[in-house]
Amino acid sequence: MIKLLPIKFFTLLMFFGMSNFILGQEVSGTVLDDTSQPLPGVSVILKGTSTGTTTDFDGNYSISANNGDVLVFSYVGYDSQEIIVSGSTVNVTMKSGVALDQIVLVGSRNPSRTAIESAVAIDVIDVTELANKAPQTSVNEILNYVAPSFTSQTQTVSDGTDHIDPASLRGLGPDQVLVLINGKRRHNTALINTNGTVGAGSVGTDMNAIPTASIQRIEVLRDGAAAQYGSDAIAGVINIVLKEATGKLDLTITSGANFSENSNQFEGGSDGEKFKLDANYGVPLGDKGGFINFTGTLSTREPALRNKDYAGDIFRGFHGAEREFAASGGNVANMTLFDYQAAAADISYLDTTIKAQIAGLDLNQQTDIDTFRGLLDFDADEAELAERGQTREDYRFKVGTSKLREGKFFFNSSIPVSENAELYSFGGVSYRSGLASGFYRRPAQGDGRANTPAFPNGFLPSIGSDIVDKSLSVGIKGKVNEHWDVDFSNTYGENTFAFTVGNSSNGTLGTGTQRSFDAGLIGFSQNTTNLDATRFYDDIFEGFNVAIGAEYKVENYFIEEGELNSYASYDINGDIVTASTTDDLLVRNNFTGAPLGGGAQVFRGFDPNNATDKTRNSIAAYVDLEADFTESFLVSLAARYENFSDFGGTINAKLAARYKITDNLNIRSAVNTGFRAPSLHQQFFSRTSTIFQNNVPLEQGTFTNDSRLADLLDIDELKEETSTSFSLGLTGKIPDANLTFSIDGYLINIDDRIVYSGSFGPGSNPEVQAIFDAAGATSARFFVNAIDTSTKGLDIVISHKANLNDELRLTSDLAANFTETEVDALNVPADVAAAGQTGNFFDAQEEAFLTLAIPRTKASLSNNLSYKSWNFLLRNTFFGEVEDPDDFADTPRVDQHTVSADAVYGSKLVTDLTVSYELSEDINISIGANNLFDVYPDENRPGGTSGDQFVYSRRTSQFGYSGRYLFARMNFKL
């Protein structure tokens, strides 16, 4: 089929070229705002078609239209206007309104449908305004504070998830929301979240790879839409609309830092410094409305650390013997038990009685060896720290936001090829370099992973990331046979994530270990080809829109192995450990005798068994009908068939309706079925990683569902998730009060939901144990269709604009989300249940991640006051309480456990304030704060701090814990 695409594309080009188009007159004009200033970026659309343009920086536009045609003018923050063409000049003055009147691209394929008139809930967010006025600078940050149904937080000490923030909509998973750019499907990230955070087991979309300066607005469809857009759109759709402006260079410099009482690991001052430079410039192409818009962004972020001095165990008594032996010129790597015995006599803090007892032991006898080990296996923290001239401060982790360096470039373009057809393209590339840390490898860890012969004081390993994201969309659209608006496009996206482990060790290499390791790379690419056709019939009912289309998608997921030393274990002869290596050849801790684990500490590299390169394809076809039976009654019906090469086909449908009770009051409802295909990541990701339970390190393997181990444990291969959702809402506006509102309730039922399972041990099966040994793992996890869930909730949005006088305006937006997710059923394989492994398959801790770890209540009240050249933004965001999933460990179900009071983290109110001043028409400055009052979440439950390192829980997601952030921003227009 791929070979046929160039032929089809050429045929379509010829078809456009030979078609007879009806040419209208050239209509032009100027669009002003309600202060008589030119308004750039206003959407101008010929009603009932997809033909349109936007105003330039001087508010000018030009479009082909006939007398009697209706032009629709719309822009975020202003009321839409419909004007009948009666000549070659149409000038318009926009009236201040609300974003809900903006014509939207998502949720309906009717080219004239606005958000408030739609049959489903849609938010329209003016990113251009927020990027200039609000403290937040990335897409996820902006949405987290202005869209209550959206949740995203930066993670910490969670491997790659430190560098890509998982995000969710309506309390569902990161992979249950579909992201579009200019209406085209965006590819997922290569990273799958597996390290005990919100969104564990899921694959999201890295929206932070898109520069905010390239975005005009974001449309958030808060309703299931798999019947319209395909897989993933269970919770909804986020459509990012890129800028089209031309004629001016827009430069923005933003700098800020966290000025908090808890900055610098609770020492105060400032940290987490951020710097960002944005540049946006557009060039007109030709004289028929063509354009190309470029955006470049450079940004840095320094760590904001929020942990205290390490309060756990650091040294045992035998480390004093190692120190004394090294001080006398000995090589700790070659120490024998007799060397430990001799060096113990020089340990200054060791009791003389104990010294005498040690000296009298015969270390040729196993009984005396056991006694000797017991005598030196005591807590020597304070004495040993004093001997080494150290304090507990030296053993702090680095808990907080990671260090980041980013560069991004995006473009958006359109070139008219005739009066009714245009070529378009958009895309970009981004690079992100991140540096995060793991758990400190302390000498006191009995398995010897601190490698004290090479690192006498242990070490704090780091995980470096190099993330490259590339995308390109090319298409042609126009009118065919006078009636059909046709869009043919191809979109390619790729995300790669390379891991570099630093300041680390492979313990089996002893003092010869390297400190830095190439741990491998993961990648994901997606190519999507779409053909869409839309026709609007103004003579059927009060308007009837027909949309049909087809899609062909190819996905590829790959893992490249790391360098040999990043994953291999070596024996005492320097040979790689295999299943046939005998115990007497294993490298062991010189004192305890425990075998040492191989591979790079903090992130074991991908090995040849993990390496994979998997591809699948899917085909889809849809029909989307929308009928205005009367001026008051709208019905939308969509159906989509999709077939995947790896699991087969699925049919989904959607029925939505809107009824105008009055001119200003609508009721709307929708019911739909949906699905989410198991991602290639979930099917083919595997590796062994270190996890910490109660501060104890364990090696845990993730295995694929087609592996021998999965077969032995009766773990089924993955199948698609299916969903049924219902929504009912009321929307309206009160023109006299300049107020609009919407209230939407929803219920989303998901069957066979894919989650990251609990941990399975090897049991007594020798074949299972051999598989564990080969992977260097002590437990195993899988991705499984484990549960059926139901999510219910309520969204409320109220917007108000008041013109207090000719120069004083106040805009207020209140938005709230109330949501609750429950696990209705466990789908446990019969053999797993019979073996008593149900708790390992899925337990209350995993359930709590889905149901209790994100706020079930979230609300935001934004007030924007403008006076002459001044603007004041005040926003209060309420984050509801959450519960720590760790409190539910070793419990079958959430409802069988009474949560501890200290594991409930209470609701908080976070205040943002920004003051902006327009020095001139081309220069604007802003200063402000996020979290003005330096609010922090409740402190972590005592059992979860890992020695005062996780002062705030890393398992839950409210609003982060970096404290007050102050910033300054300057914007230039040249």
Description:
The chain is elongated, with a radius of gyration of 31 Å. It has 974 residues and is mainly beta. The longest helix has 14 residues. The chain has a 22-stranded antiparallel β-barrel. Helices cover 12% and strands 43% of the residues. A hairpin with a 2-residue loop joins strand 37 and strand 38. It contains 16 helices and 43 strands.
Question: Which labels suit this protein?
Answer:
974 residues, mainly beta, five-stranded mixed sheet, 43 strands
Topology:
Elements lengths: L4 H14 L6 E8 L10 E4 L5 E3 L5 E6 L4 E6 L2 E7 L7 E2 L28 E4 L1 H7 L5 H8 L3 E3 L14 E3 L7 E5 L2 E2 L29 E7 L4 H4 L6 E7 L6 E11 L3 H4 L3 E16 L4 E12 L2 E2 L11 H11 L9 H8 L7 H8 L6 H11 L4 H7 L12 E2 L1 E16 L2 E17 L24 E19 L3 E19 L14 E21 L6 E17 L51 E17 L4 E12 L3 E15 L2 E12 L3 H5 L2 E7 L2 E7 L5 H5 L8 E14 L4 E18 L9 H10 L3 E3 L1 E21 L4 E19 L3 H5 L3 H4 L2 H8 L5 E11 L2 E10 L2 E2 L20 E2 L2 E13 L2 E8 L34 E9 L1
Parallel strand pairs: 1-7, 11-14, 31-34
Antiparallel strand pairs: 1-4, 2-3, 2-5, 5-6, 8-13, 9-10, 11-12, 13-14, 15-16, 15-43, 16-17, 17-20, 18-19, 20-21, 21-22, 22-23, 23-24, 24-25, 25-26, 26-27, 27-28, 28-29, 29-32, 30-31, 32-33, 33-35, 35-36, 36-37, 37-38, 38-41, 39-40, 41-42, 42-43
Helix pairs in contact: 6-7
Q: Care to count the β-strands?
A: 43
- Helix content range: 10-25%
Strand content: 35-45%
Oligomer: single chain
Radius of gyration: 31 Å
Average pLDDT works out at 88
The structure class reads: mainly beta
Brief characterization of the structure:
The protein is about 10% helix and about 45% strand. With about 950 residues, the chain is mostly beta strands.
